[in-house]
Amino acid sequence: MKEKQTAILMLADGSVYHGTAIGKIGTTAGEICFNTGMTGYQEIYTDPSYHGQIIVNTVSHIGNYGTVSTETESSEVRIKGLVVKSFSQTHSRTTAEESLQDYLDKSNIVGIADLDTRQLVRHIREKGAMNAIISSEVSNVEELKARLEETPNMEGLELSSLVTTTEPYFVGNPHASKKVAVLDIGVKKSILDNLAKRDVYCKVFPAKTSFEDMKKWHADGYFISNGPGDPAVMEYAVDTVKEILEENKPLFGICLGHQILSRASGLSTYKMHNGHRGCNHPVKNLQTGLCEVTSQNHGFAVSKESVEGLENVEVTHINLNDDTIEGIKRTDKPAFSVQYHPESSPGPHDSRYLFDDFVKLMEQN
């Protein structure tokens, strides 16, 4: 085992933390945020919604079960950096293909371990989301501060075009009973798998595909995916969703897709003080009165004030921790969306009924 190397984490407010290097030796910067999930670290790191972000895992031990190729949500690791408390260089799962250290190293991910993540998370919760820099090669704090100041803020960033597919591709059975056109603004693999398991054939389109080109496939419904960045600067996607709504075709959106449908419906979005990231967020379904424990990953939300007075938008789900909007539906169109992740990879399966609701909506239209 290699001798441990020191590393530094610096936040935009000047806070400095010292620890040991993990992953690739180097320097990286991005928005720092924390995920409270107890498991599923590989799925988290490969989720395109985390593009441009440094992840703090709040669970104490990371790396103890290694990595396997089947537990990825996209073609590569998407996070910019990693912060953990206790990092395991060894793993015990017999089906693991390699250690997390080797996985991060090959993916060029710079990280830091052996610091007090509990104190760090409390600090981020109080001060709010901010940029940070990790380095295992530069020890000069002033140099790191200068590099950090050059890092763009997440608010105002369009990132979906950096993670989307470059060419259309298909998922599922070509002879399935339903066809769904997927607008890939950062889609997770497990979302497509959940659709395919429900006898849906998906064609996944690049983020900036025009509605006219998507329409040529004659889909039964349209899906707007999750993804990274600020929905307020994604007019290309908002315009596409507006055209889908005009066609009265069934539409389902998740996470960023929920925000895009909301903006296409006249609602506004805002940057949250701290986003929702983890597998234990309680959400109330206002239509059934039931609570769902949900998996979430977002730093932007839909404004509650902007819903007031709109007769064609109904709030369907709310977050029981902070009362933020977690779901909407159009009362005049066959369209609905949720802020959280019903595919829940990782996470509980309370919300997978939403995929069934989407299939039923296509059957009714």
Describe the structure.
- The chain is α/β, with parallel strands linked by helices and 365 residues long.
- It folds into 2 domains: 6-149, Carbamoyl-phosphate synthase small subunit, N-terminal domain (Glucose Oxidase, domain 1), CATH 3.50.30.20; 160-364, Rossmann fold (3-Layer(aba) Sandwich).
- 22% of the residues lie in helices and 31% in strands.
- It contains 10 helices and 19 strands.
- The protein has helices at residues 41-45, 100-106, 117-127, 141-149, 160-163, 189-196, 211-215, 235-246, 256-264, 353-364, and strands at 6-11, 16-23, 27-35, 53-57, 61-62, 81-83, 86-87, 110-113, 130-135, 169-171, 178-183, 200-205, 221-224, 251-254, 269-285, 291-302, 313-319, 325-330, 335-338.
- A 10-stranded mixed beta sheet has the order 10-12-11-13-14-19-18-17-15-16, with helices on both faces.
- β3, α1 (41-45) and β4 (53-57) form a beta-alpha-beta unit.
- The longest helix is centred in the middle third of the chain and has 12 residues, at 235-246.
- It is globular.
Strand order of the largest sheet: 10-12-11-13-14-19-18-17-15-16
- The CATH superfamily of the largest domain is known as Class I glutamine amidotransferase (GATase) domain
User: Mean pLDDT, nearest integer?
Assistant: 97
Largest sheet: 10 strands, mixed
**Number of distinct helices:** 10
Percent in helix:
10-25%
> Low-confidence parts, pLDDT < 50 over ≥5 residues?
none
- Name the structural class: alpha/beta
Beta strand %: 25-35%
Strands, total number = 19
Distance between the termini: 60 Å
CATH architecture of the largest domain: 3-Layer(aba) Sandwich
Assigned CATH class of the largest domain: Alpha Beta
Tally of individual domains: 2
Assembly classification? single chain
Family: Belongs to the CarA family.
Region (CPSase): 1-178
Protein name: Carbamoyl phosphate synthase small chain
Binding site for L-glutamine: 49, 227, 229, 256, 259, 297, 299-300
